[in-house]
């Protein structure tokens, strides 16, 4: 056997060994993370999860995006409330609606608070409607539901503050 033929043989063996090791590592990690069924589904269909689980995960992902937008609006409303409290010259600990509304301009404060509360209720209902058969996915849903509930509590508090009567108008 010539030396060039031996080199080609060694390179081929090394290549096959490297590819085999890489596939073995990927297969081990995939089976460890998703089980045999998920790994075979990934190889065959291109996705680790069944259609119903994938649909539920997509719904949760869309909800997370919507929750982030509502959290930003909540922060904007809370910032306008803090700004109105700082600009207040009264000795009262409460802030007047007009001051709060002007601190929230150019947006409409009343509409933003009511819409935020309504939208968070809808998001909570949508999150509750997501059915997850896979036990591993339930913590993700639980975390999202907890986040929505905390935002709902903040929105209710803001609405309560907004609906409180001004001391000057009494």
Quick take:
This protein is an all-alpha fold.
List keywords for this structure.
elongated, 2 domains, mainly alpha, 79% helix
Structure notes:
It is a single chain. The protein is mainly α and 170 residues long. The chain folds into two domains: 1-48, no CATH class; 50-169, Methane Monooxygenase Hydroxylase, Chain G, domain 1 (Up-down Bundle). The chain is built from five helices and no strands. It has helices at residues 3-45, 51-87, 97-103, 109-129, 138-163. Helix 4 packs antiparallel against helix 5 (138-163). The protein is elongated, with a radius of gyration of 28 Å. The N and C termini lie far apart (106 Å).
Task: Please give the structural blueprint.
Layout: H1 3-45, H2 51-87, H3 97-103, H4 109-129, H5 138-163
Helix pairs in contact: 2-3, 2-4, 2-5, 4-5
As for the CATH topology of the largest domain, it is: Methane Monooxygenase Hydroxylase, Chain G, domain 1
Tell me about the largest β-sheet. none
How many β strands by DSSP? 0
In percent, how helical is the residue content? over 70%
Shape: elongated
The ordered H/E elements are: HHHHH
């Amino acid at each position: 056997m010539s030396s060039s033929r031996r080199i080609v043989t060694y390179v081929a063996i090394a290549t096959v060994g490297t590819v085999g090791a890489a596939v073995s590592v990927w297969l081990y990690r995939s089976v460890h993370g998703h089980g045999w069924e998920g790994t075979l589904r990934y190889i065959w269909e291109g996705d680790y999860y069944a259609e119903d689980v994938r649909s539920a995960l997509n719904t949760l992902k869309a909800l997370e995006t919507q929750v982030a937008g509502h959290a930003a609006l909540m922060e904007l409303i809370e910032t306008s409330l803090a700004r109105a409290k700082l600009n207040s010259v009264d000795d009262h600990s409460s802030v007047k609606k007009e001051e709060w509304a002007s601190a929230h301009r150019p947006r409409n404060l009343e509409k933003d608070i009511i819409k935020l509360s309504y939208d968070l209720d809808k998001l909570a209902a949508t999150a509750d409607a997501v059915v997850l058969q896979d036990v591993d996915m339930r913590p993700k849903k639980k975390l999202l539901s907890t986040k929505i509930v905390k935002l709902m509590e903040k929105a209710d508090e803001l609405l309560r503050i907004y609906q409180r009567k001004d001391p000057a108008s009494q």
